[in-house]
Amino acid sequence: MTSLSHPAQRRAIIDTCLAMNGAGINQGSSGNLSVRVEGGFLITPSSLPYDETAPEDIVEMGFDGTYVGQRRPSSEWRFHRDILKARPDVDVVLHTHSTFATALAVHGRGIPSFHYMVALAGGDSIRCAPYATFGSQELSDHAVAALEGRLACLLANHGMIVLGKTVKGALALAVEVETLARQYLHAHLLGEPVILPPEEIARVAEKMRRMRYGLPPDEDAAPEDTARPREA
Question: pTM for this structure?
Fold first, then answer.
């Protein structure tokens, strides 16, 4: 009997999809997830509930569109393939039909920098890609363009896509994007929100980068604003 390739990644995909549904950002078998592996990627199968998915159901695909496995790949395999080909900086593509992000997307609206946490998505906005039929090459092309310089985008009349280096990171970002979408919609109840300028989002992004990698604070920070270890 041939051993299953990439067992740890297959298990991580299933666990992440279950967590995605558990977090309330996806429902049933909608949404999908892929992880880069040597020579291609692993992707969730088509139309199979995540709580019924076993490691052998995860489909292994090549960048030429061929696949091996007992299941057909997700109908959205094209944008997973094309994003991974276009973005060597990421290894995970996660797609959900989360409620608040989709509510914005059905109006063709992205998420501007009304809150500094938008910087987590890699820029001063989370764009909304134009509508195209699910599973089509046109949708894939729109998604790749909307994700240029970004780690997240919305898909008009559809849902969201987020990117990451790990499944854990991608899931965390998806939850954050859904939270931002909810906050943005609620903020509109009081009128048009104040939008932070691009230079502030750039400043926030740099602070986040330094925190993520344990780098010293910005050299421009005043000494009294810089935390220091207590002397023994």
Answer: 0.91
